[in-house]
Amino acid sequence: MSAVHDVAHATDEHEAPYEERTRRNRLGLWLFFFSEIFLFGALLASRFYLWGDTRPHLDQTLGLITTSVLLISSFFMAWSESAIKHGDRKASSRNMLITALFGTLFLVGVVGLEWGGEIRPTDGVYGAIFYMMTGIHALHVLSGIILILINWNLLRIGRYSTERHWGIEATASYWHYVDVVWVFFYPALYLIGTPV
Amino acid sequence: MEDKKKAEYRRNIIVFVALAALTLIEFFIAINLESPAVPLFIIALIKAGLIVNYFMHIYRLWQPEDHE
């Protein structure tokens, strides 16, 4: 029993402090973001190679609304992270739920409404690129919503504090990254090129 | 502490308003210009820069939290 205790104690002693682990985790997360640039960059390159200076006819109003919804969700996620950093658990929790709600609205706009519009996956290069770009992005939004809900629950049961909230920071960074991707996808899909 | 909190909230609001304004500018540029690709790409870069710096806090990679 004593040996087990000694081993456990030794492990604790050799474990890096929370701040150091957070620094390492942060670096790992940014390396992951960097690796994802290749995926989204390839999609963007395909769009410009195959569509050139044209684009499919898409609902401009819906595009602007879904973009705004994602932007608003990012604001609430930033608010949630700031709140936990300053000890306001209630505001952090509330804003995480609002972010998840706006994320869901974004999915309803893109997958629910835009996918039900004129363009079909079988419409040649236009359908293929449009569905691939919005589909892979939507998958990231969906995984972001799941992460937010997991972290909301962890916050609710008291796993996060002002000093220790890496999970919320990581989720917020991931959510903003998904927003950054859409910052480039929105003009590429909706604004650049002549509608055909 | 309270001042820092207020300053951070204020900064988040300013960044959000800037991003919203840039999105509207993008929309109107696309409607009014014949070939808007270059200005739209520049605006997208500015928007991405704002998000990466102010919302994703990229500087935390090389700077301790206390120095924010």
Describe the structure.
Chain A is an all-alpha fold and 196 residues long. Chain A has helices at residues 2-14, 18-51, 60-85, 89-113, 124-156, 166-191; strands spanning 54-55, 194-195. Chain A has a two-stranded parallel ribbon. In chain A, helix 4 packs antiparallel against helix 5 (124-156) and helix 5 (124-156) packs antiparallel against helix 6 (166-191). The model of chain A is unreliable at 1-8 (pLDDT under 50). Chain B has helices at 2-32, 37-55. In chain B, helix 1 packs antiparallel against helix 2. The mean pLDDT of chain B is 92. The chains are: A mainly alpha (196), B mainly alpha (68). At the A-B interface, helix 2, helix 3 and helix 6 of A face helix 1 and helix 2 of B.
Annotation keywords:
heterodimer, A: 196 residues, mainly alpha, 2% strand, elongated, disordered N terminus, B: 74% helix
Could you give a short account of the major beta sheet of chain A? 2 strands, parallel
- Tell me roughly what share of residues is in helical segments of chain A: over 70%
Helix-residue proportion of chain B: over 70%
Give Rg of chain B in angstroms: 15 Å
The CA-CA distance between the termini of chain A, in Å, is: 75 Å
Helix-strand blueprint:
The complex is a heterodimer of chains A (196) and B (68).
Chain A: H1 2-14, H2 18-51, E1 54-55, H3 60-85, H4 89-113, H5 124-156, H6 166-191, E2 194-195
Parallel strand pairs in A: 1-2
Chain B: H1 2-32, H2 37-55
